[in-house]
Write a structure and sequence with these properties.
Blueprint lengths: L19 H11 L5 E2 L14 H9 L14 H14 L9 E5 H13 L5 E6 L4 H8 L3 E8 L5 E2 L1 H6 L5 E7 L11 H13 L3 E5 L23 E7 L11 E8 L5 H13 L5 H4 L2 H6 L5 H4 L4 H15 L3 E2 L8 E2 L2 E2 L9 H12 L1 E2 L1 E2 L11 E4 L4 H17 L3
Parallel strand pairs: 1-13, 3-4, 3-6, 6-7, 7-8
Antiparallel strand pairs: 2-9, 4-5, 8-9, 10-12, 11-15, 14-15
Helix pairs in contact: 1-13, 4-5, 4-8, 12-14
Length: 404
Amino acid sequence: MKLINKSQKLDDVCYDIRGPVLQSALALESQGEAILKLNIGNPAPFGFEAPDSILDYVAKHLHDAEGYSHSKGIIQARSAILSQAMNQGFDNINLEDILLGNGVSELIVSTTQALLNNGDEILVPSPDYPLWTAAANLAGGKAVHYLCDEAQDWAPDIEDIKSKITTKTKAIVIINPNNPTGAVYPIEILQQIADLAEKHALVVFADEIYDKILYDDAQHIPMGTLIKNTLCITFNGLSKAYRLAGFRAGWAILSGNKTSAKSYIEGINMLLSMRLCANVPAQLAIEPALTGKQCIDDLRLPQGRLHAQREIGYSLLTQIEGISCVKPKGGIYLFPKLDLKRYPIKNDEQLIHDLLMQEKILLVQGSAFNLSDHQHFRLVFLPEKSQLMHAISKLAHFLHNYTF
C-alpha cells in the first residue's frame, strides 16, 4: 500500500498548544471526564461574554453581510480601525493600509508567506506565541529566536537581538503585551528595537492583540507610532479585549515606510484576494466594538474580575514551594518557573501530560513556546476565583507527590 504523507513543508511546523497533550485531554473527555482547560485564552467558557451591544448590532445587520466584501474588508470596519489607530498616534496611514482577516492568525500566515523566500530569517522572541515560528517555517523561512530576560521582567535582550541579525534577516516580531509572559515593554526597549529595525531595514511585525488588557500602571506603546523609516505591520482583533474569539475578526495596519515595501504589500494583497474576503458577519462587529463603550476596563481595573483573578493566581502559585513567577502586567496568562533543585524536570511535556491524567487539568509546557529550558508552564487565569483556587491547589498537590 502506497502511503500518503504530509508535505515536507510541515517538518519544522509545530503548535503544541493544541498538540499531543490536548489530544489526550480530548480522549479523556470522550470517556466522560471533565477537563479544566487552562491551555488557551478562550474567554467564553469562563463566563466572559461578548457585549450585548455588539451581538445585537451584528444580528440586526446580518442582511448587510450577504455576498463577498472587498478583499481588504468592509469600509465601516476599516474606517473604525483607522480612526482608532490615528487616535493612538499612528501617522501617514489611510484606509488602504487597513487589512481585515479571519483572525490575526490568518494575517500572520499571509504576511509571512508574502515576505519570506526559502532560507530567509525572521527574529522571533523566546518564549514566543508559537504560531509565529510555525508560520515562518511554513513559508520556507527560518525563525531565529532572540532571548527575553526573565530577570528583567521578560524584556527583550537587545544585545542578543543585535547578535542574531544577519544578511538573511528580513523581519522581527514583537509581541507586546507578551504572550505567554504577560510582559509590557517600556518605551526605551521598544525604541531600541525600532532603531535596530530601521538600521537594518527589517519589517516589524507588532502583535498587539492584548493591548487593552493592562494592569496596575502598565502603559502600552504601539510599535507603529515609533517606526518611521521601515515597514511596520500591527496585528490586533476582537478575540480578547472584546471576548469575541469565535468570530475570528482580526486586522493588520500597515505603517511606516510603505514606499520601500511596495512589492511586498502587493504580495500581501494578492494573497488576501486569493481567499476572496474575511468572514463578513464577523467584520460587522468591528465598528460597534471599537466605537462603543470599552468595557474591558470594567474587568482589568482593580475592582474588575480579571485583575482579581490575576492577583489570586499569582499569589497562590508563588506560595507553592519551588515556584517563582514574574507578575504579568498585561494579558490573561501566568508563566511560572519551577526550581530545578526542587523539581528536576527532564521532560516538561510529560509533566504536563501527567498532571492532566492525574488531576484533569490542562496546561501548556514552557517548551511549547520555543523556550530552551523545561522549567516553565503557562496557565490561563480566566476561571472565576473559586475554580482557579481549586485548580492551583490540585497543582500544588500534584507537584508535592510527583516522582521526578
